[in-house]
Amino acid sequence: MSLPIHVTFTLASWIVKGLADGSLERVGGVIRDVGSKQVVTWLRDITGQKSQIIPTGGSSNNLLNVMFSGANLVASGVNTAVTGKGLADVNERLGGVEQVGLGNIAVSGVNLIGTVANAAIAGKGFADVNGRLNGIENQLGEIAQNIELNQGILQLTTATSILNLGVSVMSFAVIAQRLKELEKRLQESQELLTKMNRKIDLSFYANFRAAIELAVNAFTMSKTENRRSSALQAINRFLEAEHIYTEYADIEIEQQSQIADEYLLTLSLAYLAEARCYLELEEHNTALRRFQEGAKVVRSRIYQYVDLLLTSNPAAYLQPQLQGQIDLRRLTRIYQWIDPAFDENAVFEMQRENLFKIVQDPKTWVDSLPPAILTRIEVKGGWFGPSQDDLKQEAYKRLPQVLEIIESMIETNRRFEAYQTEVEAISQLGISFHEWLKLTPSTESQPEAAELMYITPLEPLNLLTGAL
After folding, report:
1. Interatomic CA distance for residues 121 and 136, integer angstroms
2. How many alpha carbons lie under 13 Å from residue 398 in its C-beta half-sphere?
3. Residues 6+ apart with CB under 8 A from 10
4. C-alpha pair distances (Å), 190 with each of 164, 187, 206, 353
5. Where are the domains of the chain?
6. CA distance 262 to 74
7. Are 151 and 407 in contact (CB under 8 A)?
8. pLDDT in tens, 302-339
């Protein structure tokens, strides 16, 4: 069946241009037209479901793993007199290529020198090797530039999220892995919570994991009626998890605690797992409805949490000592998630008076900080505890990390909401979810360094959710 979409491993030049001039924008896992909100491309992770939550700002310079499998740099019989100098040259060049650390270029079974037995021609052999390495280095440089260009335009290098780009790559196995990471982070928080006379109940994570295992088993069953029956049992457990983690998130937000984000992310996974069950059953309309309902529940609470972390005076994030770490552009992007009409000038005007307040009266700001950012028991001080200045300096030190948490929560929320557009597209294009899963370029081989696949409709799609 011929579908009205184009699937590639390379971002089309007109999309790159649109992202560069601002007529297009990335929102979670979609690229849309800024004016009409029409979806022009979906992004899909193809690097394998990443097993860990990558820290914000993590470099992608490790994209390539230059492997020379089966290469024999010193072929048998090469004259040792020439081999010494030749190998030194080759090793030096190989070291340079390896340090680039940019690609997954596999040179399988290559014999860089061949079976050169005659010392008289070994010198030329090494010259040829060095020439070929020149070419490899040039190709690596070009690949690196293209990857960095695309990632820069897409702003993916700093976009950390617990969710992948594309609902199709958020399998039950990935959901289970992310759930395990969140549970581990909560366990690590227990020491601090104990000092605050607080305990957390992790028993419901075991129930959530059991529900995922039930769903996995359901969709490996051969009989349709058994598969559906088990899937509905798993869905009931996911519904229970949604109620539990909504309540937990509300409690932690009210207490302004440091673990509210963990429960919000867990809540997102619960809704995702439920919707994924409906997609596996090809119940697209129900999956879309659950995504929409989940988006309302999750977004409203993430908004409360973001507002909490912006503190009573958001101008604190623009303090002089944070220059080079936080700029007005980053703060503006957060406010644009709250209200897309905001621009940098509007945000600056909002904070103009706040900038003077925090300089004139930093004590009021410090005293108002929520436990989600700072508690007195975390700060070392003198005999009488931490001074006001100790608290202020520790708070300023933490703000860059807090801003990363805000950005991560927003990025996760946008990816979750963008999943709706995929479900709508599946229905609009008249294909099954399992056909959508199998989409791949038909005439293009996958580059080793590729991290994304781009699904572009031949005509931009008008979707009810608009891409949010």
Report:
1. 23
2. 23
3. 444, 454
4. 28, 5, 17, 39
5. 5-58+158-310+404-457, 62-154
6. 54
7. no
8. 999 999 999 999 999 998 889 999 999 999 999 999 99
